[in-house]
């Protein structure tokens, strides 16, 4: 922290915030009430413990042995485990020939993410720091260069300024942007780009591959900026593109809305993105006719390539999870919630209300449009 004193005053708050957040020993630490703590009659559930070696420390065994390890791998307990495991999962996918990878997890501990005064720039800075650490697992100055790409030059300049004033923070790693304007064009406002954005006409040639770059890590991009990533993939098809903490599940839901890409963008491009390291937590509440009248529970959908998608139930302290099921196919969020609910019913935490009341709770449709079977879509996103 000695270097902190040398920073300009306006940066110290951001750096201190990220330093404190990433120094948190427990990745899932939370101040909220989690599963089963609302009742004193709930039986104790044995949690998944990391009795296995870290996935990043697993020996280079056969593909079946690696898959078995990944199928039984618990979620990380801290950011060190997370970085090691996510990089290893990505490397295994790359070894299998995958080029479009999704890495998704909460960028800050849950108690930090729940803070009311948490700003978008603080989350973006956390993602940038994590992306740089992720890139260091792969970067080599001579043979494997990695670029961390923000949507445009303005966001790139902010990121560079907040990262020590250099766009090359480590050997073999560059911070850049998806769109790079003509250096001779000094205009601040470019109306033709606004027009192209509104009609979905592409970048107008502003998306260009970086020389000798083997991997691009995309951060903080919105649904409107994802077509630029497709354009980059077309321009540099041999490069690896990592969709890093973009919340693609949410961005897919924006497709088809006015001024957003059409739904066929998922079929054509996003459906090809392989979730190699995926960790999303969900919190639910269920009212009951008997005390305690409200049961709060949460679960985690977790996948570390080449393993299964695991449905995990929080055992009550926000740090330990118990495996409910595993599937080679990514379950829709509605099915994920139903698996958790059925498990709670088997354990007697909540009662089965019957098919009619269950239908009233869930409705006739439990999947979003992009989770359904689509003829033109690839199965990469769900496998």
Quaternary structure of the protein: single chain
Tally the beta strands: 9
Number of helices: 12
Mean pLDDT: 78
Q: How is the topology of this model organized?
A:
Elements: H1 9-22, H2 63-71, H3 79-95, E1 100-104, H4 110-113, H5 120-136, E2 145-150, H6 153-161, E3 173-177, H7 191-199, E4 213-218, H8 226-235, E5 240-244, H9 248-254, H10 264-268, E6 274-287, E7 294-304, E8 309-314, E9 321-327, H11 333-346, H12 354-362
Parallel strand pairs: 1-5, 1-6, 2-3, 2-4, 4-5
Antiparallel strand pairs: 6-7, 7-8, 8-9
Helix pairs in contact: 1-5
What does this molecule look like?
- It contains twelve helices and nine strands.
- Strands 3-2-4-5-1-6-7-8-9 form a nine-stranded mixed β-sheet, with helices on both faces.
- It is an alpha/beta fold and 383 residues long.
- Residues 1-25, 30-46 and 51-59 have low confidence and may be disordered.
- It is globular and about 65 Å long.
Q: What are the salient characteristics of this protein?
A:
383 residues; alpha/beta; disordered N terminus
How do you describe this structure in short?
By secondary structure, this protein is α/β, with parallel strands linked by helices.
